[in-house]
Design goal:
The protein contains 8 helices and 2 strands. By secondary structure, the chain is mostly helical.
């Protein structure tokens, strides 16, 4: 017997999408996972991160480059989970409302998208004596101010324990997908060339601009209600 379902607005207030809901009113697990995965895969700006990674490791042998890729991935996972789980506490300490933070994060995200589309990001240089896996690759290239804000907003929006668990799983999956791009960076560069990576970075910027607009509009709408 078919299970009756109905269409309801997504509980992710910032995504502006609709998903299938059961009559119990619970958001489907697949909807949460897929929405979170896609959103944060683009928020991590994987192709811009890959371009920066390749530039900073161009004098590194392939084995060492792969080790750095693994360290970057682990660092991003740890940083993102901490931000995802501490958003509510940070909002409470500073007395910031969720809608205010949505608007602020949307503005930062829009500025980041402009940088990606216009290709105005500054080239980073590597100090041979420094470990680049955490700074600057994990922070701020992958997890910049806009991504930080989005992580905290999502962590607050997903209130139930099972929702948070699925959100964290999707977040880790998005980060691992990005890590795979870094791990295979040399092969990807040979196929796409730098020009191809630049084009993909610009496409990512367009997606981020749409996410930023939706986040700002959602924040303003909720604030005025």
């Amino acid at each position: 017997m078919d299970v009756p379902i109905r269409i309801e607005p997504c509980r992710f207030h910032s995504c502006g999408m609709q998903h299938l809901h059961y009559h119990t009113g619970d958001v489907s697990m697949s909807s949460i996972f897929l929405n979170t995965y896609i959103k944060f895969f683009f928020l991590l700006t994987p192709f811009f991160l890959l371009s920066t990674f390749l530039s900073m490791t161009q004098d590194t042998n392939p084995a060492e480059r792969k080790k750095i890729a693994v360290k970057v991935t682990i660092a991003i996972i740890i940083i993102c989970i901490i931000l995802f789980l501490t958003g509510r506490q940070i909002f409470a300490v500073f007395g910031i409302t969720l809608d205010s933070f949505r608007i602020g994060t949307g503005v930062l995200l829009f500025l980041s998208s402009i940088t990606l589309v216009q290709g105005t990001g500054k080239a980073l240089t590597k100090d041979p004596s420094e470990d680049i896996s955490v700074v600057p690759l994990a922070i701020p290239v992958a997890v910049g101010p806009a991504t930080t804000g989005a992580l905290m907003v999502m962590g607050v929006e997903l209130q139930r324990s099972w929702e948070k668990a699925i959100g964290i799983a999707a977040l880790i999956a998005a980060i691992i997908s990005t890590g795979i791009l870094l791990y295979l960076g040399g092969a990807i560069e040979r196929v796409l060339k730098r020009q191809g990576l630049l084009i993909l970075s610009k496409v990512t910027g367009l997606v981020l601009a749409a996410l930023a607009a939706q986040m700002i509009m959602t924040g303003i709408k909720s604030f005025l209600q």
